[in-house]
Amino acid sequence: MMLTNLLTLAALAKSSQAAQSSLVSGTAPGFASGVTGGGDAAPVYPTTVAELTEYLTSSSPQNIVIKDTFDFVGSEGTKTEKACNSYSCTPEENGQALLNTLDGCGSTATYDVTVDVAGMVGINVASDKTLIGQGSGAVLNGKGLRFVDVSNIIIQNIAITNLNPKYVWGGDAISFSDTSKIWIDHVTTSSLGRQHYSFGTGSDKAITISNSFMNGKTDYSATCDGHSYWGLELVGSDDQITFYSKLKYIRVYHESANQWLTIPENHVSYTSGRTPALSGTTLFHAVNNVWADNSGHALEGTSKGKGLYEGNLFNNVPNIAGSDFVGQLFSSQEADVGKCAASLKRDCVTNEYTNSGTFNFSDTGFFSELESLSIVAAEPVSSIKDSVIADAGNTL
């Protein structure tokens, strides 16, 4: 009896240790379901970039709370890099130059530029971490986040911005490689040198990005039109990513209409490509999101990418996925939604299109991969429209 009691107490203690902090709003939907981050560790409140970095990289579970701007610009100095003008507009013309860090300039003439070191590589976040922003003022200025060979992490209600936006390869907001159980929620990303979200060639399992705002409006555009080309780069091996928003709305300025419009989110706005680039063997489930004001194409990728899209709104996206797309996609056309039932245990939900191109794919060859995963329940786009809640990005 005593041994049984001891084992019970030990099990309860282990369960308590794994519990998600009460500081976190909600729980992770989709593939990252069950993530606990810092668990029941006592919260810490850094006040300097050094303290924040120390907590994020420590070997102990941490619940880290911030409410102000942490300004990393200049904190690691600057350095000279070679760059070239690979696009039709230069940084002086509101374009981007290409850093020659991977010899991408080839035979194109290069010149010296000065870049901020902190922006080029994100903080290497350790496992078992929760980073929470209090209010709308929690900002990482000039520094992103990097997850490599780690797991069990929650990032909620922060903004990441200003990563050498003049230069391609100037910095990714959030990058992943060989990770699992990571939940990114209510995060705003903007003004970047490269990707909003970059998934490397390693395998990233059970990742959820929810209720977040990819703000592609930029002063330095590779496509020379104020739209960011670098959105979601997914080149991983068998990645599992849920891209999800649940019954939320945001306000977005629509230039062509010269007015504020209210539309649902995750919100991917003012991009011109790679939202996403399904370039690896990624399984991508996009549910109840909005793609808006895309000047180029939304989807691109290789033959191994797999995407299920349901309950999304495409607003002013003339080219969602061209006829030359070679991956596997299911776009939840009305006639096909019943094909989801065997794997999802429900029908899929149709998407909605306003001033957008066609999106008509019905590949189901990857549906068996969904059967063992936590799948988000999609809502009809019409029900999302019934509410007006400004909630995209770091708005908790």
TrEMBL record:
<protein>
    <recommendedName>
        <fullName>pectin lyase</fullName>
        <ecNumber>4.2.2.10</ecNumber>
    </recommendedName>
</protein>
<keyword id="KW-0456">Lyase</keyword>
<keyword id="KW-0624">Polysaccharide degradation</keyword>
<dbReference type="GO" id="GO:0071555">
    <property type="term" value="P:cell wall organization"/>
</dbReference>
<dbReference type="InterPro" id="IPR002022">
    <property type="entry name" value="Pec_lyase"/>
</dbReference>
<comment type="function">
    <text>Pectinolytic enzymes consist of four classes of enzymes: pectin lyase, polygalacturonase, pectin methylesterase and rhamnogalacturonase. Among pectinolytic enzymes, pectin lyase is the most important in depolymerization of pectin, since it cleaves internal glycosidic bonds of highly methylated pectins.</text>
</comment>
<keyword id="KW-0732">Signal</keyword>
<dbReference type="InterPro" id="IPR012334">
    <property type="entry name" value="Pectin_lyas_fold"/>
</dbReference>
<keyword id="KW-0964">Secreted</keyword>
<feature type="signal peptide">
    <location>
        <begin position="1"/>
        <end position="18"/>
    </location>
</feature>
<keyword id="KW-1015">Disulfide bond</keyword>
<keyword id="KW-0119">Carbohydrate metabolism</keyword>
<dbReference type="GO" id="GO:0005576">
    <property type="term" value="C:extracellular region"/>
</dbReference>
<keyword id="KW-0961">Cell wall biogenesis/degradation</keyword>
<dbReference type="GO" id="GO:0030570">
    <property type="term" value="F:pectate lyase activity"/>
</dbReference>
<dbReference type="GO" id="GO:0000272">
    <property type="term" value="P:polysaccharide catabolic process"/>
</dbReference>
<dbReference type="Pfam" id="PF00544">
    <property type="entry name" value="Pectate_lyase_4"/>
</dbReference>
<dbReference type="InterPro" id="IPR045032">
    <property type="entry name" value="PEL"/>
</dbReference>
<dbReference type="InterPro" id="IPR011050">
    <property type="entry name" value="Pectin_lyase_fold/virulence"/>
</dbReference>
<dbReference type="GO" id="GO:0047490">
    <property type="term" value="F:pectin lyase activity"/>
</dbReference>
<comment type="similarity">
    <text>Belongs to the polysaccharide lyase 1 family.</text>
</comment>
<feature type="domain" description="Pectate lyase">
    <location>
        <begin position="82"/>
        <end position="321"/>
    </location>
</feature>
